[in-house]
Amino acid sequence: MTSLSDDSLEPSETGAPITSPENNKSNETPKDQAKPIIVSIDKSGVMNFTNQLELGSAARFAITMKIVPDHLRLQKLDNGQMVENIPAVMAALTLCRQRNLTFTAMNEMGFINGKLVCYGPLTTAFCEQHPEYGDQRIYFINESQEIICLANKNLRDFPWACVILSKKKNSEVWNEFVFSVDDAEVAGLLTKTTKMTSTWIKYLKDMLYNKAKNRVQKAQYASSLIGVNQFEDFKYEENGNAEKEVGPTLAQTIEALKNTTIGDSVE
Question: Hey, which bits of 73-147 come out as E strands?
Fold first, then answer.
């Protein structure tokens, strides 16, 4: 067996020069390079995708068009750098397609601990599609378990718990669901290190309601939430080092809120 060297290059029978593999690479016609995948859009403005490649292209297109909220689009790396989270957007688009939702529903989605989560009115909308979706009555009660309302002249009372009475369509049975400050404390959502700027402090009523609503939806309309991760199931710490900081005790926090007058700021 002889080796091919520059000295051994001889004309072929056809007269075309014989080239080495290295030279041949430079003379090859470039192979088809990766071309951008075009995602079709129907008359109603909905993107159509049939495979993973088209889905990835649709996700990038959605990001370019600024229809993906930052809390879903961006991912923070360990070094603090913010990068685009394409898989998260792909997961959100897939859920929109599966649930026949408009892409604006992504405003009610997030990506936490590697999971796509839904929150706000989106999970409620899922449950409202249930054929047995019925009626609800929502109350807030104080520590004496009195309903906070205008008739009781106690609107300034501290909201200790949210109570939701719920019954299914064509049923006479009302089921009671409660989530209280005590529940939040046991779950670690309100602790002695909870900051005064925490969502659980600033929007306590909303947070109590969301947790109580979460219990209603899971207990009565679970079939509408199959495969849906609810935001309220995830303990999301906005400030990663918050638990290391020393703050007021829970009792001090609650007492400060009780003594706060509308318009005042709690220090």
Answer: 74-76, 82-84, 109-112, 115-118, 135-141
